[in-house]
Automatic annotation (TrEMBL):
InterPro entries named in the record: Acyl_CoA_acyltransferase, GNAT_dom, Trichothecene_AcTrans
Domain N-acetyltransferase residues, every copy: 77-229
Organism this protein belongs to: Porphyridium purpureum
Domain of life (superkingdom): Eukaryota
Protein name: N-acetyltransferase domain-containing protein
Length: 235
């Protein structure tokens, strides 16, 4: 397996990565709320039709989001040989805090895409969820020595493994390789997850829970865990 780390996120990876991420997050509580609202499931189409619509919207959303970061210098995934080509088997974004925010025109373009595919309600709920996560993570970062004084750090996002390869240690090996480079940079790593089983997974890689705070009821009301991994030269 070839681990692709400390490399720009390439345009040639975006579509495959976005589809992989969208399928993985299709049933996540955060995106269920974003797509349908707190009581949205009662008014949703039948399960199969709803899932296909949701998949289309999420794939569009993640493709647009990843294209915003195309060219950014981030740790971005792992590949394995597959029928004379490279196949993306694991994807994640380990994003430095120094990466510049997207240009305003890109954000406007993304907003229009969301409204076209998902409606105004989807855009509004996404903004509210995004604002809460960003605000709360800033509180967690402020409580960390070094980062609280404006020092650099990394944020882990979009961690997924191909379904047929899950449970084989692929995610652990890929992420561990990238985290070794984070250690070499002497940077802490922050993340947020809504699944308790993920807390156990990340704990094995050196993360600890910094804040266990449920998302407010008016934007979904599901569990959430902010975690941090201290850098170490001795791992």
């Amino acid at each position: 397996m070839e681990v692709w780390s400390a490399s720009p996120l390439g345009e040639d990876v975006v579509d495959d990565a976005a589809d992989l991420v969208a399928d993985a997050f299709l049933e996540s509580p955060a995106y269920k709320y974003i797509l349908h609202g707190v009581a949205g499931h009662a008014r949703a189409p039948p399960a199969r039709a709803r899932r296909e619509r949701d998949r289309v919207v999420l794939r569009m959303l993640f493709r647009a989001n990843l294209r915003v970061h195309a060219g950014d210098r981030i740790f971005s995934g792992a590949f394995a040989p597959h029928e004379h080509a490279r196949r993306l088997v694991c994807f994640f974004m380990l994003r430095p805090s120094s990466v510049a925010p997207p240009k305003i025109w890109r954000e406007l373009w993304l907003a229009l895409q969301i409204v076209w595919y998902g409606g105004v309600g989807t855009l509004w709920r996404l903004i509210r969820v995004k604002n809460w996560f960003e605000s709360t993570q800033k509180q967690v970062v402020r409580g960390y020595p070094g980062a609280s004084r404006g020092g650099p750090y990394l944020t882990l996002e979009r961690m997924v493994v191909r379904p047929e390869l899950q449970g084989q240690g692929v995610g652990s090996r890929c992420l561990a390789a990238a985290l070794q480079e984070a250690d070499a940079l002497q940077l802490p790593v922050f993340l947020a997850t809504q699944e308790e089983r993920n807390v156990e997974f990340y704990s094995r890689l050196g993360f600890r829970v910094a804040l266990a705070e449920p998302v407010p009821l008016d934007i979904g009301g599901y569990p959430n865990f902010f975690m941090v991994r201290d850098h170490s030269q001795d791992r």
